[in-house]
Fold each of these.
Amino acid sequence: AEDYDTIRPTFAETGTPRLPVGLNLGAQLFWQQKRFPAEFAKVAAMLMYPQYWALRLTGVAANEVTSLGCHTDLWNPWKADFSSLVDKMQWRRLMAPVRPAKDCLGRILPVLAIRTGLDPQTPVFCGLHDSNASLLPHLLSDTPPFSVVSTGTWVVSMAVGGNKVTLDPARDTLVNVNALGNPVPSARFMGGREFSLLTEGQSDDWTEADIATVLARKTSLLPSTQQGSGPFPHHRAAWLDADGINGGQRFAAISFYLALMTATCLDLIGAGGPTTVEGPFARNRPFTRMLAAATARAVIASEAATGTSIGAALLASEHGTIQGAGERFEPPADPAWADHARSWRAAVDAQG
């Protein structure tokens, strides 16, 4: 790791923060080359995971920018080219050709058609990174500025046409590259994992009375349940004014916490305009309402079960059909919502 840190490109070059446990792909490749030089000398091509499956299906090796540009250290999003690391390590000659996500690489191999029973003319497209698949439908239909929050194990916030800000790599911000090849300021935290840990075995039933109680008491969860990532990687989680709360109130407070963490991520990347929430959190009304309150902007809860699947399907569509937008939440008129957001931020700031 120390050796890698001396040669990896700067955040200014790649928009990639230094991440732990091998989350920088460049670090994995560096380790493989240093630790297993004989095996590495036999490498025929280097390509990203989605395109590995395209290779298995078609026999065609390709790379693609949304995966190359997702905290790998391998891509310079400002120059739309491989980073200086790739040339330092003499990997450029091994990199499979970069092709657009929507490129049809070919038909499935005949042997696979026989084994699977699929039509031999089944096309295989180059493919793209999952969060960027969620973003793609909005790139094709929405007018900037807007932001998209893709929720799952990770909650990934992406701002398009927002305010110019200086990203802070210490707070888990990064630059993604969208399916059109353009840089996208992004931030993330492990919101889905936090939600699972916090609600495990508990009911998600809540009432408007539960919401009112949490707002009145300012019952709050402070970051971070999952440390080591997100906008507050070194803060320790703490409950405020939570004595005696029932299950519905706890669920509401957890949802508020996740919304306020998401709002922080959006602030860090200069987001503007409406925010579309994709994935499971789109169905969480306390989350979407608090996100609207904390950002003072509209939130659209996507009707789609997964924007990732829709974005991937659009690669194969000639018409670019877009799904319905979903329910729109304006910032609540009740000032208690915004007051709760301000109180939470003040308490987080007091944590130091």
Amino acid sequence: MTSMTPKRHQSPSQRGIALIESLIAIVITALGILGILGVQMRTLSDTSTTVRRAQAIRLIEDLGERMKVNPNALASINSYVTTFSSEPTVPAAGCASGCNQAAMVTYDLAVWKKSVKDTLPLGRAAIFIPPAGASTQLGVMLAWRENERDSSAGFKDEIDATKVRAADSSLSAGGGTDKTSNACPDGYICHLQYIPVAGRCPTDSNFPGQFFCAGT
């Protein structure tokens, strides 16, 4: 006689367990992938900010080099002062055939601000004379579009280069005397740097504090 093995019947509570386990595994895997993507996006954002700040430093160095070429940029220090909203037009004639001191300032400033606009996203620049009486220095502040997710006031204070940190770690506003022009605009990241202004022309002994440069 052939023995028949009775079929086992699953209880209703055991049905679909494999499907539930699969769904749980998919959810856990998806959460892990989202976590990795979040870390990658944050890393890319930090890298982008670092690159932009390095570009800002190079742009300020370029302005400093342009000032060194000027026969006496120190005598025209006030001509370099500009606000974020100012967009000078590059002179059509340029300086290929030669420029006097004033024309060179106009040309260099226009070309440099155009470079800032072309290099940084929504790039803007302001140049001011520091309020501390350092007449041989200029404060240069570059601003570009903000891409940080954290927009809290505390975070913005930490990344705001216009803030001055005291010995007790407290922060105070920096920049020039005109806070509207020299403070970091809302929605932007800024980099502030002070650069020396070269004065290569000899002083005039008959007029203390004045400079004499041929062609000025």
Amino acid sequence: MDPEEASRLWWRRARADQEISDKVSSAHQRSLINNDCRGALAGVLATAFHGDWISSPEATDRSSDKVYQLAVAREAGFRVPQTLVSQSREDVIAFTREVGRAIVKPVVGARGPSLYTSWVDGPESIPEGSFEVCPATYQEYIEGNRHVRLNCFGDHMYGALIATEALDWRPDLNVPISPWPVPEYVSRQVEEVLRRLGLRMGVVDLKLTPEGEPVWLEVNPQGQFLFLEPLTGHPLTELFADFLLSAAA
């Protein structure tokens, strides 16, 4: 289809690498191919497409900034974890002494093996050189074992409650996972965050404190959600298709 004829576009995984022949062995050549293919696609769509994005490249890129997300979520009324982005050993030591139990995760991450959230165990014992390589995101640990994954398609939200003592639930889905009715006040707050971020959809991670308070962790502007379909019984494929069709109406 000619981009000029489309009324809606789902901006999904546009930065994925190309399928490149094994004959191209140079890392520089592979980088050139990937970058130029992405640039050509983005340029054509920016020039020829005049419809609605789900969600726009600008909003998707901006909202992928996890530090920016936290600020927007806090402004919208969510509690967010105390957070430090740093590569200073002294600052990290001071931060962990202030918040007590702390976790660490990548600021952005990279393609390849997943880098899961980890405990900060004794930053005093970590060599200075390890900090100098690059910054990381350090956060206070939010107590509790109830994690919420919210699949937000337009005005509709489908929640999954994941019960696990694990710090990061992603490596092991053999834990109790059930549908989570989204309280109205949470729905309103999430809608406000997505509105401020300019997102038409998003996959949101929250954690519930032992008292039941939802704490904002992050939103993935184009996050994965189909793996939850058989685990929760939510017909997410159908629901997302309905969302795309309604958005194009």
Amino acid sequence: MPRRPVGVPPAAAPVETTTRLRPVRVPAYGGAETPVETTTRLRPIRERRRGRSLAVGACVVLGLGLIGGALAGVWLAASGGGKPAEPAGYAAAKELWHNAPVDTLFPRTLTAPQAGPGPSARTWTRVVVAPDAPCAAGSLAPRLLTTLRPLGCERVLRATYTDATASSVLTVGLVFTRADVPAQRALDGRKLAARLGQDVPPALSGAGTVAAGFGPAQRAGWWVTAPADLPVVVTAVSGFADGRAVDRPVRADQAMTKGRTDAVAQSGLGHEALGIAERLEKQLRTTARNAAKEEAQR
């Protein structure tokens, strides 16, 4: 055997570069056939450890970035750096008291399906409209006035409705303010009426109408709410159209409590006050959003 020169490496083992073919059976009616390749054997490929390391490193950096961003967001929120988004139509609503027609703010007829008691629907017809007024004692209850003055109480609009049977009358109010979104939300509208105690909204009478005798002594059921997405407070107070006096007005949610047997609860005047306030709030929200869309298209 010839000797390998010094310094010459041994010959590398043969590397398979072609594929081995497995024989395919030939049909009985044919003769012998050269085997045809149908599968291939793959040659091993070395694992690319560097690429995997780079990918892992990139994921770690990305993960740390996301965590850092989240922590920064939490810090900014905690420090008051971020402002809550303004709801659609919020700015436009501030000007509706002088921009929107009275029939839009206080429609001649209001309908509230399933306003109660039970599934019964309610329909109200407008009988009196008052001119817009400043935020003062004559148009707002005292404690509500004190609550809203720091928010920039702008204007008060009021109207009185009667139900389909003309047996009840209801004065509703829209109190427009200059409150920003955080201040409006701080009012916590669902609990506002409870915080006001017996701060019952004033009634609006109308000479020559079914509401001619609707005054302070006739107020029976009442409600006050402040939607979080509108710089407005909605008030409502109901009473009997026949002018009968009520010893003590009852907040709507209390008058609607199951099992009550007093005249206010039995007559549904609590449902009336709450139902018409919710209907007006919905109407105002639609009006504000439509006004904002029109403004954006100009």
